[in-house]
Amino acid sequence: MHTSIKNLSIVLAIASMPLAANVTDLSGNEAKFSFEGAVEPACKTSSGTNTVTGLTLDASQKTQDIGTLDVWCNTGENATTEYSSANGGFLVADNAQGSKLAYTLNIGDTSGIDLQSGTYKHVKATVAGSGIAGETKATSLKITPQSNGLNEAGTYSDTITVTISAN
């Protein structure tokens, strides 16, 4: 008796399951499947060389390399990059006075950028690699300290953060 009740329960369970698809036209000899998806625009970046520890901070106001920005985008276009300074566009000393030294930033061929007024947006101008292997293109970053040779003693530093977006 238990066996027939179990079998009846299994048959009722299978019969009550919804069917995924019904064939309504048995005369056709082909089936079609349409599908699509999207790959969203994206850019990736990394710091190339960026281990500068010995800036020249004298009256020469020499333009100096601070590193390279390596960029890849899947759009085949140049990227938009936005630059901000942790110290508001100043090199700040580790001395008791917290002395400040202004500087300007060069991004590739664009020079004289002042970050004291806030962030700088380099619109559709930063070169980007676009290959499927992820090859990047590098843009050089340089600063020109606005030193006069009479600045207070100390080690001066700043951090520039770069945010990247696809066009």
Automatic annotation (TrEMBL):
Highest taxon of source: Bacteria
Q: Where is the signal peptide?
A: 1-23
Keyword terms? Signal
* The keyword Signal is assigned to this record: yes
Name under which the protein is recorded: Spore coat protein U domain-containing protein
Give the species.
Pseudoalteromonas xiamenensis
